[in-house]
């Protein structure tokens, strides 16, 4: 079975990395002209990275209006040319002067770059939407999932000349809360237990390349190349590679705990998480157990989720068909299934659900663009 699945996984890997004709940076969708004189000026920081490339695809997909766009990256990439929406662009080196005249900057270049250049951009009057963890837990920076807590950024306005920072949550938090929040609004979650099954895409293109390489090596009877991770990834799974803290949780798990409390504005909600890296190319899966303050039966929960924005229900018990990473890869919606009452809890005060979402799409680039759309 593993051998038969390799071509599909391999094609998916290439889609996740590139899938752009002629130029590595062209969007996958049909060309749309989004240049508009009354639109904001935008900048993409880290345009050569996986999420930076996805920024461009989402901007094109959603026909985001802009009057100008800057493509920013490291000195190493500066000077390269590519075509986006029928216009040729030259990648510019990121410097403090890059943000002069920029209304919105989309950052995905790592925490250290965000910490250095984010405040500089804000001082120049730019609204920064940051995909790193640099500012997520700063009490003065809103942490936003547009379908969940758009009110967190209601005081940030475009066109005032005043810069601001807005943080994009961690991918696992976004995928989880897209499904959990509609249920939380109905019955109030008091405890949430999350187990994640996270794809190679969350660790970047190099991890995806290593998983593909290892798969070939193992099938050919050769020892696997282990450079990105310290152990074999192909045909294996292991605890998420984030640093382990003194409490025994790793940083990825604690992001789910802390970010959920901030986004829900509920410091008392109990959250525990176990994050696992699995040999999947793209899209994360999560098993989520919810305990409620008020009763919520599975029929009501299913109907709530069917009507939730950005969520699609795949819950066919008869065919044993539920969400999979392959089905949601390169898709905007988060898929939810395995919706069932928790038999260990009485009076319909518990539910189990299974959630899948594209880590690069909704877990990163799409969420950031949706934040920018709220500013228009």
UniProtKB/TrEMBL annotation:
Keyword annotations: Amino-acid biosynthesis, Diaminopimelate biosynthesis, Lysine biosynthesis, Methionine biosynthesis, NADP, Oxidoreductase, Threonine biosynthesis
Tree of life domain: Eukaryota
Pathway: Amino-acid biosynthesis; L-methionine biosynthesis via de novo pathway; L-homoserine from L-aspartate: step 2/3; Amino-acid biosynthesis; L-threonine biosynthesis; L-threonine from L-aspartate: step 2/5
EC primary class: oxidoreductase
EC number: 1.2.1.11
Location of the Semialdehyde dehydrogenase NAD-binding domain: 41-156
Active site, renumbered: 171 (acyl-thioester intermediate), 284 (proton acceptor)
PANTHER family hit by this protein: ASPARTATE-SEMIALDEHYDE DEHYDROGENASE (PTHR46278:SF2), DEHYDROGENASE, PUTATIVE-RELATED (PTHR46278)
Record family assignment: Belongs to the aspartate-semialdehyde dehydrogenase family.
The protein's assembly and partners: Homodimer.
NCBIfam families assigned to the protein according to its UniProt record, in alphabetical order: asd_B, PRK14874.1
UniProt-recorded name of the protein: aspartate-semialdehyde dehydrogenase
């Amino acid at each position: 079975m593993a051998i038969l699945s390799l071509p599909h996984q391999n094609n998916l890997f290439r889609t996740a990395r590139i899938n752009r004709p002629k130029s590595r940076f062209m969007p996958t969708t049909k060309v749309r002209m989004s240049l508009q004189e009354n639109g904001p000026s935008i900048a993409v920081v880290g345009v050569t990275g996986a999420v930076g490339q996805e920024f461009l695809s989402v901007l094109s997909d959603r026909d985001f209006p802009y009057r100008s766009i800057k493509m920013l990256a490291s000195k190493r990439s500066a000077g390269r040319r590519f075509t986006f929406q029928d216009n040729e662009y030259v990648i510019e080196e990121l410097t403090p002067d890059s943000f002069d005249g920029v209304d919105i900057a989309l950052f995905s270049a790592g925490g250290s770059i965000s910490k250095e250049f984010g405040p500089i951009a804000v001082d120049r009057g730019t609204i920064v939407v940051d995909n790193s963890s640099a500012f997520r837990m700063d009490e003065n920076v809103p942490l936003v999932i547009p379908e969940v807590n758009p009110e967190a950024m209601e005081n940030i306005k475009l066109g005032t000349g005043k810069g601001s920072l807005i943080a994009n949550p961690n991918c696992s938090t976004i995928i989880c809360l897209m499904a959990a929040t509609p249920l939380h609004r109905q019955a109030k979650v008091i405890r949430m237990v999350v187990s994640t099954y996270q794809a190679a895409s969350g660790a970047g293109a190099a991890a995806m390349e290593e998983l593909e390489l290892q798969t070939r090596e193992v099938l050919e009877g050769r020892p696997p190349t282990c450079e990105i991770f310290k152990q074999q990834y192909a045909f294996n799974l292991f605890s998420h590679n984030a640093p382990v803290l003194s409490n025994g949780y790793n940083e990825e798990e604690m992001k789910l705990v802390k970010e959920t409390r901030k986004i829900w504005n509920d410091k008392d909600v109990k959250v525990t998480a176990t994050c696992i890296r699995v040999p999947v190319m793209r899209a994360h899966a999560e098993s989520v157990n919810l305990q409620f303050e008020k009763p919520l039966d599975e029929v009501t929960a299913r109907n709530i989720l069917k009507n939730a924005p950005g969520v699609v229900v795949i819950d066919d018990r008869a065919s044993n068909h539920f969400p999979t990473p392959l089905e949601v890869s390169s898709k905007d919606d988060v898929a939810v299934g395995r919706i069932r009452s928790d038999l260990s809890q009485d009076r319909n005060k518990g539910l189990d659900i299974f959630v899948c979402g594209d880590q690069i799409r909704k877990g990163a680039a799409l969420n950031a663009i949706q934040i920018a759309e709220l500013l228009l």
